[in-house]
Amino acid sequence: MFSKRVIRPELLDHAEPDEARENLADLVRINRFFGGHSTLRKLFSAVVTPGDRFTVLDVGAASGDSARFIQELYPAACVTSLDNNSVNLEAAPPPKLIADAFEIPFAPGSFDFVTASLFLHHFSNEQIISLLRNFHEVARRGILISDLERRLLPYLFLKLSKPFLGWKRITVHDGLISVRAAFRKDELAGLARAAGIANLEVVSHRPAFRLTLMSVKQ
Fold first, then answer.
1. 39 to 42, 57, 75, 150: CA distances (angstroms)
2. Is residue 166 within 8 Å of 22, Cβ to Cβ?
3. What is the pLDDT of residue 162?
């Protein structure tokens, strides 16, 4: 059942604001305690040092927890959160804007880095290629992507841990869908190559079952 990506609609796409906020809070918990933030730390530490000044566009930023975490690690950084959902962005720190990731309203090279966490798996392969091209164009120094790895253990995790950790209904439902839509290492690398992106490094992280894709421009 995990041989290929399967994309299905998620409940969050049409959730009422209160239930959407509960799900976003769960996602922050998952990132904080189950590998999202630690993976992001490894990704950024490969290209910047703690005192560096740089700019980041976080695409599909949702509640902005990635932006807050990056700015905690790098106080001189400026992270702009972009999402197409106003409820998602309510809690995100400024600067932030509502916009379409397929039509990013910034000129080429406007940010040092473009990042996206748990975002790409929502889209078809063709859409992902288009998104990666957009990200690469807007980034002056490179793109830094973190997403899920399609494996059995992360697929089972939310459902089995719900009685102990109290995940919300949407979190469990959409989490199963997200893992089925996620990537294997060679798939993510192939999509980046199809987008014309060079200097690729794709890494599988354990025990988080996250994949990172980094491309630094020469």
1. 5, 18, 19, 16
2. no
3. 97
- DSSP string spanning 113-153? EEEEES-GGGS-HHHHHHHHHHHHHHEEEEEEEEEEB--HH
Could you tell me if residue 155 is inside a domain? no
Q: Report which DSSP code applies to 165.
A: H
CATH of the domain at 88: 3.40.50.150
Identify the domain containing residue 207 by its residue range. Answer: 16-149+184-216
Domain presence at residue 167: no
- Cis upstream peptide for 154 (omega within 30°): no
Are 188 and 153 in contact by the 8 Å Cβ rule? The answer is: no
Answer yes or no: is 179 within a domain.
Answer: no
Running DSSP on this structure, what letter comes out for residue 78? E
6 in any annotated domain: no
The model's pTM is 0.96
Is the distance from CB of 181 to CB of 8 less than 8 angstroms? yes
| Residue 40 near residue 67 (C-beta atoms within 8 A) | no
Tokens 């748990």 map to which residue?
Answer: 118
Confidence of residue 177 (pLDDT cuts 50, 70, 90): very high
Whether omega before 207 lies within 30 degrees of 0, making that bond cis, reads yes
